[in-house]
Design goal:
The chain is mostly helical. The protein has eleven helices and four strands. The longest helix has 34 residues.
Length: 293
Amino acid sequence: MTDAGHNPDDYCYRHPDRLSFVLCERCGRTICLECQRHVDGRVLCPDDATEARPVIPTRAKRFANRNRRRVRTLAARVPTDKPVVTYTIIGVIVVLWVVDLFWNGAIQKSLWYIPNTESVRPWTVVTSMFANSGGTTGLLSVLSNAFTIFVVGTQLERAYGHRNFLYLYLISGLSASLFAVLFMGIVFSAGPAVMGLLGAYLLVMRRARASLLWVYFFIAVNLALVLLFPQRVFLWQGTVGALLAGLAVGYVYLFEGSNQRARQLRRGLVTAGAVLLFFAIAKAVVLRVSLGA
């Protein structure tokens, strides 16, 4: 699917499987987010950053090396070429659905985010992004979500890195819950969070000038699943919220402006994620108290 638009110049010179559009300002080679080094206001590759790194005083250098060894030790435990976050998300979704087959749907229902009822649980703003319909009726949803996450997530995780990809999924899921609170909707599947991944993937493919046919196909399938459910009037809110969040996060990740502006956008992204989590939980608590009174 991606070979047709593959351009080696758009992939990191140290990680050939990671799509990137940021160039080292000294040698001009393409570098991914993990390989970017900020030295004196410039974005450099690791090789040039080593040559341009200023001399550090002895004591400060000792502590810097110690922290660097710790980071490398932790990072070495997770292979960077393996999309472990993608596999973990798929595993959680599938395992929860399989186990729920023996509990007559009770587990899945406890994960759903239904903010406008007395039974709302604040923690479901997070658990809903790993849920699906219970029983055999949720089989189509599970297969569709797992397949889409596998196809899109593996590429996004290799392009963005493990941590940034996890942020993308969580922010998409939280945005779905927030829109469900604001516009009287519900979230009872991973579908909205998957739509967020598709939004970010759409930007990546457009930047790479690759074929967008498959992206539109996946978006159409997910929208069709929403429209097929009898409760579709309550499902579009989460889908729209996650899609907008995915587009926003994808834009920040691909931003190629000044380093200062890029840092501001990333700080804003983290802040927005924290605000979404707080607001969604607070709103759910208020609704539960008011409805239960």
